[in-house]
Write a structure and sequence with these properties.
The chain has helices at about 5, 10-25, 30-40, 45-60, 70-80, 85-95, 105-115, 120-135, 140-155, 160, 200-210, 215-230, 235-245, 250-260, 265-285, 290-360, 365-375, 385-405. Helix 6 packs parallel to helix 8 (about 120-135). It contains 18 helices and no strands. Mean pLDDT is about 80; it is low at about 400-410.
Length: about 425
């Protein structure tokens, strides 16, 4: 933010310029929208923030959106945090089609740390959901923060937050209504990107982050995730059988969630699930009664000591690299716009010259223009005259004009009007 490129621009002037550019050219360059995202903290009020946010939506519809740099996503996230618009930021992250903002490890860590310290557990869980849906779990700090966010949300959420009531169904009046649609969606549910229920989203995140973790904490989180995601179906039965066969020790918090599973419509399946839960409760509960969140917080502390300084140095290097690349891309964009402007001016001049040449040479080429209507197939009927007759008519009109011009009386010079007596 201290570069001369950014300090020399004002948010109001930049946003108006980009809006006019989009209205005229239907495009906004990647470097321009990146600079706008970095200048969002200068917004004086919500109206100016709304105006800048509308430009983010317009940019998403441009071809240049394919060239968005990782700095752009970081800039949007940091800017909205700086202006205290966390709720709007969560909305933007969820609306991928409209805004196209994705979190990376560093921005996800920053957001979850921010929301956990503020005890805004639903927002922290939303960030964890985004990380799991993007299928990013390489950073151990991000993984631990995501698990803590999900567990804190489960522990503090109200029942209606985990399972929101379904919208009321419209009464069927028996009339058949036909609606025209462009295409028909296939009735398919992938249990990942199509999830909307918060409880199932938590389960999906827990199961995803711990799918390859064989430790006691990982196995406990994975079992809880499977319970929330698949409840008491066949998938849950198969998983509980593996827990029993592999003699996995799970945390006592997992048992509490297993006992909350709703009854299955299939009585035989329901009995099988309950028998497996009782067996896990009797033989496979970890003797350590420490809550699962406390285990994860302890693990996070060890990971921070090991990776925090490296991640900070790496992020600083990325920011310096992005700043240098931004200056270069800005110069290239300025050159591209200058070339495009000059090209349009040259094209306009060439078009004007062509029109002027056509006007000046019309009478010389009138015969060719008239005869082309029949030679080129524009008119199907035969021409009313031959080429010799056409030449004769042109010659007569030319001499007639000259003759008439010479016969015109010359205007007499009159002096000033005489004053009336």
């Amino acid at each position: 933010m201290n570069s001369s490129l950014l300090t020399g621009m004002k948010l109001n002037a930049l946003s108006q310029s980009l809006h006019a550019q989009f209205e005229e050219q239907k495009e906004i360059s990647a470097v321009d929208i990146e600079i706008l995202a970095l200048k969002i903290p200068e917004a004086a009020d919500t109206d100016q923030l709304d105006y800048s946010e509308s430009l983010l939506q317009k940019y998403r519809k441009c071809n240049f959106a394919l060239n968005a740099s990782p700095c752009y996503h970081q800039a949007v996230i940091r800017s909205y945090l700086d202006v205290g618009q966390q709720s709007r930021l969560i909305y933007i992250l969820k609306k991928k089609y409209e805004y196209g903002i994705f979190v990376d490890d560093y921005s996800a860590n920053m957001l979850m740390d921010w929301f956990l310290k503020a005890k805004n557990y639903p927002a922290a869980a939303d960030v964890a959901f985004e990380v799991s849906l993007q299928e990013e779990s390489s950073n151990p700090i991000t993984r631990s923060l995501s698990l803590i966010s999900c567990l804190q949300f489960l522990a503090n959420a109200k029942p209606e937050q985990l399972n929101p009531p379904a919208p009321p169904k419209e009464e069927d009046d028996g009339k058949e209504v036909k609606i025209k649609v462009k295409y028909i969606r296939n009735d398919f549910f992938d249990h990942h990107f199509d999830l909307t229920n918060p409880q199932r989203l938590v389960g999906n995140a827990l199961a995803y982050f711990c799918r390859n973790d064989s430790s006691g904490v990982g196995a406990s989180c994975f079992t809880m995730g499977m319970a929330l995601l698949h409840e008491n179906g066949q998938v849950m039965v198969d998983h509980l059988k593996r827990v029993v066969e592999q003699k996995v020790k799970v945390n006592k918090d997992v048992i509490a969630w297993l006992e909350k599973l709703p009854a299955n419509e299939n009585a035989a399946m329901d009995q099988q699930v309950k028998a497996l839960i009782e067996k896990v409760k009797a033989e496979h509960v970890d003797a350590d009664a420490t809550p699962l969140v406390s285990h994860l917080e302890k693990l996070l502390g060890a990971q921070l000591k090991q990776h925090e300084s490296k991640d900070i140095e790496h992020l600083r290097g990325l920011i310096a690299k992005w700043a240098g690349e931004r200056d270069q891309r800005y110069q290239k964009e300025q050159h591209r716009q200058l070339v495009a402007k000059k090209s349009s001016e040259i094209e306009a001049q060439l078009k004007a010259l062509e029109e002027k040449e056509e006007l000046l040479t019309f009478f010389k080429k009138e015969k060719d223009i008239v005869m082309t209507q029949w030679d080129g197939g524009i008119r199907k009927e035969p021409p009313p005259f031959t080429e010799e007759e056409m030449e004769l008519k042109l010659m007569q009109r030319k001499h007639y004009k000259t003759y008439k011009k010479e016969l015109l009386p010359k205007p007499r010079h009159r002096g000033p009007p005489k004053p009336r007596v």
